[in-house]
Amino acid sequence: MNVMIAEDELLERKAMRRFLEEQFSSLVVTAEAVNGRMAVELAATHEPDIILMDIKMPGIDGMQAVERIQTFLPSVHFIMVTAYDSFDYAKQAMKLGVREYILKPGKKEETIEAVQRVMDNILEEREQHKQKEHNIKLAKQLLLSYIIQDAPGMTNLLNELYPGMESGFFLVIEKQHNEAFTLPAEELSTWTADDAIVNQEEGRQLIVCIMSSRHLPSDEPLRLAKRIQYERGSAFLIGTGKPSTNKGTLSRSYVEALVHLQKSKENENVLEYETHDTLERIREAVQEADIQRAMPPMLQLMDRPEKDRKMEELYYSIKQILNDRRIDAPGKDPDDMDSAEDWFELIRWSCMKIRQHYRSLNKMERTKAWIDENPQASLTLEDAAAHAGISASYFSQLFKTTTGENLTDYVTRHRLEKAVELLKKQAYSLKEISYMVGYKDPNYFSRVFKKHYALSPKQYQNTILKK
Asked: Which PROSITE patterns does the record match to this protein (predicted)?
């Protein structure tokens, strides 16, 4: 177990460290703090199991440090150390949940007993947590069998384990050539943000149930199935079931997955159920600049009898997505798109442009943050463009597009807003504020300020004082 000692007296801190290391072979002192503020910072960095906290320390005292640490490290155990045998201190510590209290100079046996009690409590808590995790795993396996069999009690158990569930679906996986395999839930969880239940029996067929607290898109089962094939190899055949938002009908997704697995054995590929929202899935994929997600429903759309009407609708949907992001749409009209290659190229081009748009927005956000954090810096268009890693002309155009104002106006507005904040504090002279917001000439600063606020900085400050 890891221990941190918070004590402002060097000799006492070193003596306590030596004492703990000599008496408890399983304890490792990972950090020493000389005051309460340092104790809070080191607790966040080292996350100790036990903290020996001196109550009387400069700045933030031990009680305040305990209260702050508990906000981000609620599982840590504290042992309070003090030279004062005060009931008030003990009462305050108990309110914070601290149960161990050592007086200094204390008896060796009392210190050993206090530390041992805390260690025993930690071991007991860990065992309880381990047992709880084991019970939850068993309950999830039971839930899986309940759903598959559509058994009574399924909904109650589902509500208990996943009270915030919004949707879920099934995958049924087999490996070609009748080979046995496993797919641990821990491995599967690295490929999806949702919770996965995997049947634990080894064999040719594996059942996976995905539970989500969000409304899953209709193509999420296909995405996960392809990810599994990518990570584990194409020898896996995967049937997908449609996401269900109704807890009572979740078993249908399992049946769908079985049916599609059977079909996939004929084609040796992952099959997706037919859906009525193919257009919407393409739109979602293009909006997220996901070319691979857009292609399968595109193929489906092109095979349908109403292809011409639907493809024209898709074209104008994509054009609207591009216009919303101020991206010029390609010159071709729907009537000029004769082949699948033309449509694939439109999707590819649109996704590429949208991805560039998102990257540019990220660059703009980083550059704006840099400007905001350095109001006192002498800033030129070339400086900002260099920080963003793009040309000055492109930066100027993109900055105006994303912020609605040019760089000069943005910097001026931000500097003046900063100046107002400093004026309200009434802690600096006008000359100091001028320099702090990037103006080397206080007179010029006053003229710019008055032009923007119709008051000089001094007049503005006087209005604050009157209030």
From this structure: HTH_ARAC_FAMILY_1, HTH_ARAC_FAMILY_2, RESPONSE_REGULATORY
